[in-house]
Write a sequence for this structure.
């Protein structure tokens, strides 16, 4: 059974924080699409190693962690704009 | 800062933020909770501000953003407390769990956190506290970094 709580609220918190990630501000270094692929792979490995945190579903991933990552990246690509 | 640090700081910040959110969401049944998770999220922001500098950091919050989410965190906590006071008779009474059987079922359903534990409003309180702590700690560091830049500007003159 999958609990809706951590998925929903992880996604919402991710949306709130991801909207402020503005990579255009960075000088000397550029973050391309491949950088985000690496971040996603690293985060998925972490979520898999964390396991069923916080212990109330049978998915072998930390659902809160993964939904937070999805929220951050979605919000970064949709809402984040450099001033 | 070196190129390697600039390349690795943002991915680590994003993963730290995910870990912080996960800690907040597991606060009602595991060690951790709102404060710890909020501090972990803030540590991601702090790492980014330290490595890239205050003007160039990808994770930098405006005054309005800080103001809004600091207020939402504090107000949300108080509102949940007042719901407990008016519906159950005690400030911060857990209306989602309702141990004393004094809350109507409709109100109890609204404040029941959707997972298999019967936690009631505790996860919501964790989320509000986490939001407030994350924005508060980030604001302190962003302000300190801004002061440092200000002082260095004075020395240059």
């Amino acid at each position: 059974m999958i609990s809706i709580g951590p998925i929903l609220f992880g996604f919402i918190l991710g949306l709130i924080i991801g909207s402020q990630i503005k990579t255009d501000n960075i000088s000397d270094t550029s973050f391309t699409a491949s950088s985000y692929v690496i971040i996603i792979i690293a985060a998925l490995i972490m979520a898999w190693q964390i396991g069923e945190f916080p212990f109330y579903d049978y998915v072998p991933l930390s659902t809160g962690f993964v939904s937070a990552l999805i929220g951050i990246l979605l919000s970064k690509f949709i809402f984040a704009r450099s001033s | 800062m070196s190129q390697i640090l600039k390349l690795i700081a943002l991915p680590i910040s994003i993963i730290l933020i995910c870990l912080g959110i996960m800690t907040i969401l597991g606060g009602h049944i595991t060690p951790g909770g709102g404060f710890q998770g909020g501090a972990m999220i803030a540590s991601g922001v702090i790492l980014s501000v330290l490595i890239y500098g205050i003007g160039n950091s990808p994770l930098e919050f405006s005054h309005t953003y800080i103001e809004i989410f600091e207020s939402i965190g504090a107000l949300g906590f108080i509102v949940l407390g007042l719901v407990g006071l008016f519906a159950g008779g005690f400030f911060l009474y857990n209306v989602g769990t309702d141990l004393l059987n004094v809350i109507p079922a409709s109100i109890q359903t609204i404040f029941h956190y959707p997972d298999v534990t019967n936690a009631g409003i505790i996860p919501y309180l964790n989320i509000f506290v986490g939001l407030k702590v994350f924005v508060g700690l980030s604001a302190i560091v962003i302000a300190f970094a801004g002061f440092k830049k200000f002082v260095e500007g004075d020395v240059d003159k």
